User: What shape does this take?
Amino acid sequence: MKRNSIAFWIGAAGFLAAVFVMTQVVANQYPFFAGYVIMQFIALAVAWSILGGYAGYVNFGTSAFYGVGVYASVFLVNAFGAPLPLQILTAAAIGALMGFALGLLTLRMQGIFFSIATIALTIIIETTITNWRYVGGAAGIQIQRPAVTAPFDYYVQMLFFVQALLVVLAVAISRYIQNSWIGRGLQALRDDELAAECTGVPTMGLKLLACVISGALMCAVGAPAAMYLQYADPASAFNLNYSVSTLAMSLIGGTAHWSGPIIGAILLGTTQQLLAVTISSEVNVLVLGLMLVLFVVGAPEGIIGLIRKLRGSRKEGEV
Amino acid sequence: MKPRGNKLDIVRLPGKNRAGDRIPRHGLIGKRLKSGQGGPQLFSLDLLLDAVVIGVLLGCFYGAVSLGLSVSFGLLDVPHVAHPAFLVLASYAVYFLNEQYAVDPLVAGFLITPVFFLFGLAAYRLYYETFEKRGSDAGVRGIAFFFGVAFIIEVLIILQFGVDQRSVTADYIGKAWRLGDIRIPYRLLVAFAVATALTVLLTLYLSRTFMGRAIRAVAQDQEALRLMGTNPVKIKQRAFGIATAVLGVAGALLIIVAPVDPTLDRAYIGRTFCVVVMAGLGSMGGTLVAAIILGVAESIVLTMFGASWAPAISFAMLLGILAVRPQGLFGRRS
Assistant: This one.
């Protein structure tokens, strides 16, 4: 376990260093635009799977958290001209509170009731923002990017690096949870909630904790998006597509291990980027739906499960 | 929806980028507000009565679009999130028949019913083989599966018909019936009549016929039925077929009441699930009552606060019911 940890942190540092070098060397802005979106989805998928993967509560409210993150920074920029780190921290705090409230309200519901309740929450928040004129209402709002600071040439490069930091943070948290008693408790309640409760797992507390962490991360991921787009409107910030993409990425990658959502997000995110550029955004959603259905039917354990199966059968063959 | 020509649009996944588009869905109450008298400040008794009448009619229509879900989710426990997507698909089928062959929308609705029945049979078979049979974790993957199906249907409709709103033509569309001060559009009356008839028929079918009773029995205790020598899967499959077949007519009503667009199913996730959960899973009579409550609530909120709050009403009611009384108003489970 210790050795794994060292390897993980070296990998994370290497990833950040590579991202930083890329921002200094690559002049073309497009890779940063595309990479930003993919990293955003990695962070969202990893955050989603803390509640959805480990605990088995299918949260369709990803877009609610993401959208609140977007609008938290819209509000902060509008009202105080707040800098990016403050936007992200505030968004994370709001997300944690939101996760807590969502948890209290809905975690007694199970299965589809929980999922439907999270969709309901998304639509209600979206409608509220739509009717809130200060942040632009239904028409949306334009946001000016502040001047970019020191080592970066463009603001998007900085956002790219910030998003990479968020990815590392999300993955580290997810990995820590999986390896600690929290993760074991969540997995126990995922398999059988009643049995877990009977053997002394504090199920309600753990679910709330998962909700809070997952919510804080999702909101934090949403915060820089307002700056990335320089524009925010409720219909796209709260789009259900975020929820379904995130869910699809986690399920396609596999929810049994922290690396599953990363694999899924890279695979599906890259495919979507390529399709959106080369064909059209409708086909992009079609592929999302098809891949979701195919994986859920054909490979219920995701890519991680497929790899494990492959390894397992190879070992059997050797023996 | 076309990209705006800069790369930033890549992040905005398609679907609906048009906040204004989904708001005035039923437009009936909105028009009255625009006509001057009343409005949010002056809320008269006339307006309230008007809202209630329209709400009841609208409610019966909501009942009809929720009937199928009441069977598939309420009785069979299938997490059928794609139900509204099938509904919109039916609307487009009706639109196609109406546009190409000038078939009356209601007749078209009945014409596509057998196709939808077969479709439902196949869909349940697939669902059963891949999820219920496997057992563990069926819930999570089942929901994801149906969401995927809903997305696929949405995109296929967009690729075939585009993102614009579509409507049908018939004699009774566009005219209205004056009753004192209240103006009731005929299309709403037609939807009301057919919806009520459909609900009554399905209720009778489930309570009087042998097959209907078997469906309700399988919902209560599948094992007992197996012991008595029947095949519960066959019965469930038949029930799911019926639930999907009803959507044919419901889809016709949907496009009669108001124009449809490919992503309309997202608004109806809230409405249909709200009705079914409020009714208490599987109660047909309850479905109608719950739908009327939703219709009246929606209509009154629209009149008082305006159309921009419309999408949230059904979802807020749903959330409230789930938090306070998850077994629904007429629930069979506690």
The longest helix of chain A spans residues 155-179. The first strand of chain A starts at residue 141 and ends at 142. The beta strands of chain A are 141-142, 231-232. The CA atoms of residues 62 and 243 of chain A lie 5 Å apart.
